[in-house]
Amino acid sequence: MSEHVRVRFAPSPTGYLHVGGARTALFNWLYARKTGGKFILRIEDTDVERSTQEAVDGLLRDMKWLGLTWDEGPEVGGPHGPYFQSQRLEIYHRYARQLVEKGAAYPCFCSEEELEAKRMKAEEEHRSVHYDGTCRRLSKEEVDRRIAAGEPHVIRVKVPEKDYILDDLVRGKVEWKAETLGDFIILRSSGMPVYNFCVVADDADMQISHVVRAEEHLTNTHRQLILYEALGIKPPVFAHASLILGEDKTKLSKRHGATSVGQYAEDGFLREAMINFLALLGWNEGTDREIYSVEELKERFSLERISKSPGVFDHAKLTWMNGQHLRALPVDQLLPMVEPLLKKAMPEETRLQNPEILRKLVELIQIKMNVLNDAVDVARSFLQAGEPENEEAAAMVATEKSQKLFAALADEFSRCEWVRDGYNAAIKAAGKIAEAKGKDLFMPIRVKITGTCHGPDLVGILDVLGRDETLKRLK
RNA sequence: GCCCCUUUCGUCUAGUGGCCCAGGACACAGCCCUUUCAAGGCUGCGACAGGGGUUCGAAUCCCCUAAGGGGCGCCA
Q1: ipTM (interface pTM)
Q2: Distance from residue A256's CA to nucleotide B15's C1', rounded to whole Å
Q3: One domain, residues A95 and A236
Q4: C1’ B23 / CA A248, Å
Q5: Structural domain containing residue A455
Q6: What are the DSSP calls for A420-432, one per residue?
């Protein structure tokens, strides 16, 4: 069975890839990887007005950044293409023709004005606002005549008088009573298919086995079930995950600040952390575990354990989680990630050109970072000499004792061997002369050299700065 | 208005009739470690939406109410 798993992510290219869409994509991808099935990417660009090439490019870029590789879709092709809905029009027409021929769908000549009038009247009379089926009763002759006369028409599907039950993998049984729906449109008068119809046609054509998507599509499933039945095709298994909300508990949108995957990539978040966080937002394996590698998620993911209730996107927790992944990284992996950031931010900083020093620097600052971009501020805080940051710091270096300490230290530093043990001993020796130890010893030195009261390990800083620079700053 | 979904600490969640006067994580507060800040460790704060049932026993099952969300398009 597992080799038949075929899942898809079907975004519409009307904007950037946001975290909600990314999570849907991730759930699908994880399921495919877990089962050894196929993950298909399909671009739903039938809304010509709003779809843009730019959005498609961004979508693909962000998917790649997350590492959500697709087995069939744009750029890679596949046996069920094309993978852009705008290029699949014949397929929709073929399916629509099939339905009309079967008598499961019919042309409708009602104009939008007529329908609007009916809708308003129904509302006034407190009746349900569904299409009344006027054209359903048209004779074959009349239909043929009006089509031949070139009258504009849509295609509607005949909705059977029966209840539908969806057995959703995450929600359980969901039931719709007959008469909650009128005959709905599948083909517009322009000949363009409507969303609910495209989805079914495509999912059927691409032999999708499991439809994993967000809750906003739950009620659409009713129509889709009707369409599958009309087509005589067994529907796929459905799993509806709930929505991701902003801090104010409304559906996550641009108003909530950074919601695009691309933005997080730019802000220095790690792909692994992003995946970890998204996976745990609405899914867990039933344990206390929080930190997972992508590999581990691929092994453990299951559709059944997706949660039903909506979740708030907690930026603070993402940041924490990113820090966890970041600190777990071997320096060899972290280094190439922060190197370009540092060099770009401080092109004049020659120490960054020295591989040995650079490595020491990264080792030193790793523990202080939560996102990659933190590297710049942390490194800058001591690479560049600064005046005391505040009065407290200024007072610390201004005392007579401190002056004595710096003089002694400069002397010791200029003579000692410039290795950790060497300058460590030098600091102690200078401390003895100036009669300072502990905080009183280290703090003034730190402030004198960096200008601030806090930062990474002082000895590590000296290691990065080197003897000449340290002496220069002491004087 | 009609239909559908959801409801455990501020947030993410564990929990599928007794192990739960509810566990973990983020955030917050305090302490420890420490030359500072982080990181780490420990402690604290803090929740079963409300009301009825069922049951010896309910966060867990049923019903009602409320709140939130989604849908009811020739948008996707």
Answers
A1: 0.93
A2: 31
A3: yes
A4: 27
A5: 391-474
A6: HHHHHHHHHHHHH
